[in-house]
Each structure stands twice: as C-alpha cells, then as structure tokens.
Design goal:
By secondary structure, the protein is an alpha/beta fold. It has one domain: Rossmann fold, CATH 3.40.50.10490. 57% of the residues lie in helices and 11% in strands. The chain is built from 9 helices and 5 strands; from the N terminus they run H-H-E-H-H-E-H-H-E-H-E-H-E-H. It has a 5-stranded parallel sheet with strand order 2-1-3-4-5, sandwiched between helices. Helix 2 (15-30) crosses helix 9 (182-205), helix 3 packs parallel to helix 9 and helix 6 (115-123) runs parallel beside helix 7 (140-152). The longest helix is centred in the last third of the chain and has 24 residues, at 182-205. The chain is globular and about 55 Å long.
C-alpha cells in the first residue's frame, strides 16, 4: 500500500525489499506453499501476529467459495451451510515458536540453538517461504533456521534492523529497517508486515 511510505517516510529506503518480499510470498501461495516464521521475544509475538493476519480476514472479507459451501452443505446439511458463512479464506502460515510442546521438548532434549532449524527441517518444502525475524539479525537460532531453509531450497526473508548481519548476508531478501535500537526496530517491523499482509491478501481475495 502506497500509504505505508506516506505514514512512515523512513521506510522508503526499504521499499524495494518490501516489494520483493511481498512478491515472494504471493508466489509461494500461487505454488501451493506456505509461510513459516521464527523469532524470539517480541519478534516471536510478531510471528504469531503475522499468522493471524494471513490465516483469517485482515482488511478484506474472505468468503469461502460457493463450491466449498455446497460441499459443506452436502456433509452437514443446513448446519454445514451455516458453518460456511462463518469460515474465511485462509493463507497457510505457521509460527514455529508457537509449537510450544515441540519447542520445549527439543530445547530440553537436544540443542536449544537448533530448535527452529529442526522445525524448518520438518515443515519446510521448496515452494515455501521462511520469514526470519531478528532485530539484531544475529540470533543464532534464527540464523540456523535460515541455514536449513537454504539447504532445503526454501525462500528466506529476513526482517532486521539497519546494521548488516548474518541474516542480511544469507537471506534471499532482507528488510533492514532504518533503526538500531531494539524497540524502534520492532516499531517499524509492524507497519512493514501489515503492509505485506494487506498486499498479499488483496492478491487473492480482492474481488
């Protein structure tokens, strides 16, 4: 959305990478892939937030197709038809830190720094995208996830601060917002991913 750069002029410096990330995610969904996300602390919360915008309606209504409504009606009669009215079109996304039982088991039993790498190994396919969120760009567990993604042919998108980092060096696309303090970086990450989610949603549901 063009209004992003009106409201946050400093993000003009990231326009090319924001647009590239948006295009990559749209391409992923067109290929039948999904979005994986990983982050720590506030970035972990951002991962959950992004999943919420992708998996249900964000700015647009996303009614299910008439064909799917009929399938539900066939299975559940009027109750199935009523259910269809409450369902929304969904774009598959998984917040890796949200898998708390698996994350805690792996960190306890194996190697905490490799936890997201393990989840990417299990979930990642070549048609997918991994979004790596790290304000420093140097979090070891996020970097390891990106390494596994690259080895599996998964597209990688980094979201970091202004400084060059391990993520900016390895990711296919890296959105380096122009701040260096953690909370200020996070303040800019939110409008960036809202913009991306809105544009991705429009590509599939704006009728």
């Amino acid at each position: 959305m063009e209004s992003l750069y009106t409201r946050y002029p400093v993000l003009e410096a990231c326009r090319k990478d924001i647009e590239a990330a948006t295009d990559a995610i749209i391409d992923t969904y067109k290929k039948g892939g999904k979005v994986l996300l990983c982050g720590n602390g506030g970035s972990c919360a951002d991962c959950d937030h992004i999943v919420g915008e992708l998996m249900k309606g964000f700015l647009l209504r996303r009614p299910v197709s008439n064909e799917f409504e009929e399938l539900l009606a066939k299975e559940g009669g009027e109750e199935g038809r009523a259910l269809a009215k409450n369902l929304q079109g969904s774009l598959s996304a998984i917040s890796l830190p949200g898998q708390t039982a698996l994350v805690s088991a792996y960190c306890n039993d194996v190697e905490p720094a490799a936890v997201y790498a393990q989840l990417v190994l299990g979930h990642g396919n070549p048609e997918d995208v991994l979004i790596c969120m790290s304000t420093s760009g140097n979090s070891k567990n996020i970097y390891y996830a990106a390494l596994v993604a690259k080895a599996k042919g998964v597209k990688t998108i980094g979201m970091t601060g202004q400084k060059d980092s391990r993520l900016s060096a390895i990711c296919d696309i890296c959105i380096q917002v122009p701040e260096t303090e953690t909370y200020k970086i996070q303040e800019l990450h939110l409008p960036v991913y809202h913009d991306i989610c809105a544009d991705v949603e429009a590509a599939f549901f704006d009728k």
